[in-house]
Design brief:
mainly alpha, Transposase, two-stranded antiparallel sheet, about 50% helix
Length: about 220
């Protein structure tokens, strides 16, 4: 759970040996607060422009990156970024709740990527189209399929939970936050696809839920 960065570094003004406990995690590059002081007005103007929608952050990043040499504003933003990174890492070290929340977010992203790889069988998920529009079509199609599976799972998971509650089952509500709609083990992604109109539920109707094997414990309801 702790290792989510390729390199865990913090930045300080001064030497790392001032903080022996964190010395191995402190960058050898010292913070240059002078750059922030010199270009602070430019930083404020940029932040105001982005907040008001006059310019987008992505456009400004492209412009700053296009300069042959890093200008003063870019250097100031780099130092501010290092400060923000350091503050986040310090919170990360001391707050287990934050670590769990970040890890949960990473797990969701990995689950979505795993679903996308399972769905995208042709060319093993590699987009080899040369034209940008074809790349966009292929990526959009993949997004549509993963979204459809996620929606399907969400709807039927909700119906399953409601059905169990109606039968008097006691469900720990805190456990529901750990459910993910990104599973696909119950979906046939390969083979023949046979569309029979008589098996398609009418508008506003749903497929019948499969009977669940329920094991009741003292505090929770375990469903298999």
């Amino acid at each position: 759970m702790w290792v989510i960065f390729t390199s865990v570094l913090t930045f300080i003004k001064g030497k790392a040996d001032q903080y022996p406990a964190l010395q191995s995690l402190i960058s050898t590059t010292s913070l240059n607060l002078k750059e922030i002081e010199i270009h602070w007005r430019e930083v404020l103007r940029l932040a105001t422009s982005i907040k008001q929608g006059t310019v987008t952050a992505s456009l400004m990043l492209k412009k700053l990156a296009s300069y042959p040499k890093q200008n003063g504003l870019a250097k100031a933003l780099r130092e501010i970024g290092r400060i923000e990174r350091t503050l986040f890492m310090l919170d990360w070290f001391r707050d287990p709740t934050l670590r769990r929340r970040v890890q949960a977010g990473l797990n969701k992203g990995e689950a979505r990527n795993a679903l996308a790889r399972a769905v995208f069988l042709h060319r093993l998920g590699e987009i080899r189209d040369r034209k940008p529009e074809n790349q966009s079509y292929r990526a959009s199609g993949l997004t549509l399929l993963t979204a459809a599976i996620s929606l399907w799972n969400t709807v039927y998971m909700e119906r399953a939970v409601d059905a169990l509650k109606r039968k008097g089952g006691k469900i720990n509500e805190q456990l529901l936050s750990h459910l993910s709609p990104l599973g696909w083990e119950h979906i046939n992604l390969t083979g023949d696809y046979i569309w029979k109109s008589n098996r398609i539920p009418a508008s506003g109707k749903f497929r019948r839920l499969r009977p669940a094997k329920v094991e009741r414990s003292k505090n929770n309801l375990n469903v298999q």
